[in-house]
Amino acid sequence: MAPLSFHIRHEVTPERCYDVFTAIADGFPYQHITQSDRQEARLRQLGLIERQTLSANGSALLRILQQKPSLWGDLLHFLHYTRWSPIAPTEHAFSWVYRQFTDHLWEASNVFVDENYLQPLVSALISKIEAEPAFAHVIGHKTRTGTVSLSHLSLVGALNWIAALQPPVINGQQFARRFFCPPELMFLALGWVAQTSGGEVDIDFLLSAERRQALCKICLLDPAGLDRSLDWMLPQYTAYVRPGTRAGAYGRFVRFVRWPDLAALASC
């Protein structure tokens, strides 16, 4: 069993991962790509490859990218953000850190992200990990050193992917929320938020204040841009999600016909 690790390798980048991913898809060698083994390991962690071939999700992603290659950054961001699950809390702990860091940036709204910003955040994240019930009881015997190993380079590893979003949220070292995101990311994010907050198929799902904020965080959206992004997405995926049958004082509702996933995106 792999040790518990919270580190996000900074040498794993969107460009290198893309090159390894497409090489595996085409059956080409990729060992010439810088630190190809680490790019491959990340793709495996994200569930995109199995052994030396694309997984079902990897094949679906490939079909999506053949039509819209610009989605690589946003879709890989989604996978990084959602890979960790409380059902198996010691697996994919790097994704837990990625999610916490993304949420922290969103909460900051507009901030200069340099080493002076990252260093104290590392200490705060280590304290949060040590206090998290999902990890606290296993850190001593599941990590390599018996302690949490995290550095500002771990957060640089997360920034590599956040900087790949289109429209961007990083300009130089300045982070700012965006006012629009690709409908494909909104489609997946809405399904994930619903499934992790009590949503059910064929039942109206209320976009409460908490759920709206969760959507904004994963998409790194300014709240002012959320409804416009939803309005752009919903007509494109009516086989999976539609406006709810109710509206009014309680807020906006949507209704899922089927749950969104990468295979759904690839088939639309």
Sheet of most strands: 3 strands, antiparallel
Tell me, what's the shape?
globular
Low-confidence stretches: none
Number of structurally distinct domains? 2
The structural class is mainly alpha
Distance separating the two termini = 38 Å
Number of H/I helices: 13
Q: Biggest sheet, strands in spatial order?
A: 3-5-4
Instruction: Determine the mean pLDDT.
Output: 93
Strand share of the residues? 5-15%
Helix content: 40-55%
Strand tally is 8
| Rg | 19 Å
The arrangement of helices and strands along the chain is HHEEHHHEHHHHEEHEHHEEH
Report on the structure:
This protein folds into 2 domains: 176 residues, no CATH class; 85 residues, Arc Repressor Mutant, subunit A (Orthogonal Bundle). The model has no long low-confidence stretch (mean pLDDT 93). The longest helix has 17 residues. A 3-stranded antiparallel β-sheet has the order 3-5-4, covered by helices on one side. It has a 3-stranded antiparallel β-sheet with strand order 6-8-7, with helices on one face. The protein has 268 residues and is mainly α. This is DUF4007 domain-containing protein. It comes from Chloroflexus islandicus.
